[in-house]
Amino acid sequence: MALKNIIGIDHAVVMVQDLDKAAENYRQLGFTVSPRGTHSAHMGTGNYTIMFDPDYMELLGVLVATEHNVPARAFLDKRGEGIERIAFTAVDSAEGAEEIRARGLTPIGPTDFERPVTLPNGTVSAAKFRTFMWPTAEAPGGVRIFACQHKTRDTVWIPELMKHANAAKRIRQTLIATPEPAKDAAHLGRLIDREPTAEADGAVTVPSGGDRADFVYLTLDQLAKRYPGVPLAGLSDRGGAALVLVSGDLAATEKALGSAAVRSGAALCVPPAKANGTLLAFIAA
Can you give the residue ranges of the VOC domain (predicted)? Predict the structure, then answer.
């Protein structure tokens, strides 16, 4: 029976060493980046968001070491920058946590937190969330998963933040590198009640639910063949590797990316070394 409180991919979390430098880097790539947010004290983290519809990217950095961010710090120490976890949209995080508990998994949370938000009119409000995580060990392909309930959507999906010079519209796929695509895809499929599908090149896709972005598990060799000519230096053979983004105008994308762009087949790509450990591949809508 499918999980009732999980809709599909909500956002991808890119863990970065220097939060402000990462935000500036993404601005240079033509993204509209939100003002910096600082999470509740027990989280010990800060972020910048890059808003699409219906999903988004989050640049996340550790500001103060806390018990809650131990896994994030371990990721940075071992892997460096890159996609550290993927969030699903939660209808109700408390009920969602109980759903996975009923399946024999011990959820982390639910956890409530917030961050102040400066709105376009200059007033300050708050973005409030309730999240729960699957157990840390349950990380298919080395990428942790969690679910995020947005209690204040209007302070996150702000129209002014959803327009990007590079014409990015939404996430189409999250690509995760692994030596064992079928095994890790099956693992995720069990966790979220979705059926994996093998692709012609040996990669395996797992739908996240609804019309949201798919997960794609593939080896680094398979990734290199999908995006020939794109340097993959900085990627691990296991872990979050790439985000495929839908562009509303590839000419605008190419102009905004400038010298960072690498054309690969029908895609315009930014190598991981120029996007904080994450390959960005822009495709036509």
Answer: 8-150
Dist. CA 147–CA 152, nearest whole Å: 15
Q: Which residues of 77-109 are buried (b: 16+ CB within 10 A; e: fewer)?
A: eebbbbbbbbbbbbeebeebbebbeeeeeebbb
Separation between Cα atoms, residue 145 and residue 139, nearest integer Å: 7
pLDDT of 77: 93
Kindly tell me if the per-residue pLDDT of 213 is higher than 80: yes
- 269/60 Cα distance (integer angstroms): 22
Task: Return all residues near 105 (Cβ < 8 A) that are at least 6 apart.
Answer: 134, 135, 138, 191
Output the six-digit token pair for 233. Answer: 């230096």
d(CA 52, CA 55): 5
Q: Which residues pair with 206 in a beta bridge?
A: 215
Cα 58 to Cα 13, 39, 123, 226, distances in angstroms? 5, 13, 22, 25
pLDDT (tens digit per residue) in 74-102: 999 999 999 999 999 999 999 999 999 99
- The beta strands (E) that lie in 31-179 are given as 37-38, 45-51, 56-62, 82-90, 108-118, 124-133, 144-150, 168-177
Q: Which residues pair with 85 in a beta bridge?
A: 13, 144
